[in-house]
Amino acid sequence: GGRAEMVKADVAFPGERRRILEAARRLERRGPGGDGVDLWVNNAGIGGTFATLDGIELEGDARWHQTLAINFTGAWLGMVRAILDMRRRGAGGGIVNVSTFYADQPYVFRIPYTVPKILLKTCAAHLADGLRPYGIYIADVQPSLIDGPRFRWVARNYAEHFRKHGIDDPAADAGIQDWFRRQVPERAPGP
Description:
Blueprint: H1 14-26, E1 39-42, H2 63-89, E2 93-98, H3 111-131, E3 136-141, H4 149-164, H5 174-183
Parallel strand pairs: 1-2, 2-3
């Protein structure tokens, strides 16, 4: 018995995050807490570039800044707006952040993607305990790649970047084999 409204918005821009909250407030609802956000889902994200630390552009409007603005800043500030709305109404609610499996795993060549996801996951975790007494709960969903077109695109890019850094066959590299044995032993390449 409730209503929902989809609002297409770019969370990297403050006015867009406000539009989402205003749309939730316009929905008429019966029950405690009045109209507003009950559930905020941060599913926004872009892949960023494949880059090593020395390859990241730190000035101008580089892809790094765009990735950080969408994957962390927009998601974080949108979540904060939703939390403040829930607190204002005394209604409780939920936050779901879609981060990544790679927020807990090294993800070589993907620093621009993983850093903002790690920031979002970590900052949300620090808020979670303090919000529970208000009936506000935060969940972090950590999907990984699955076989399909996106996985094949990532695999091709990885192979290209390994070759660019002097590793023609990553599965035969002793350092990479050691990493797999430590991180994902069931997927470690053989000798």
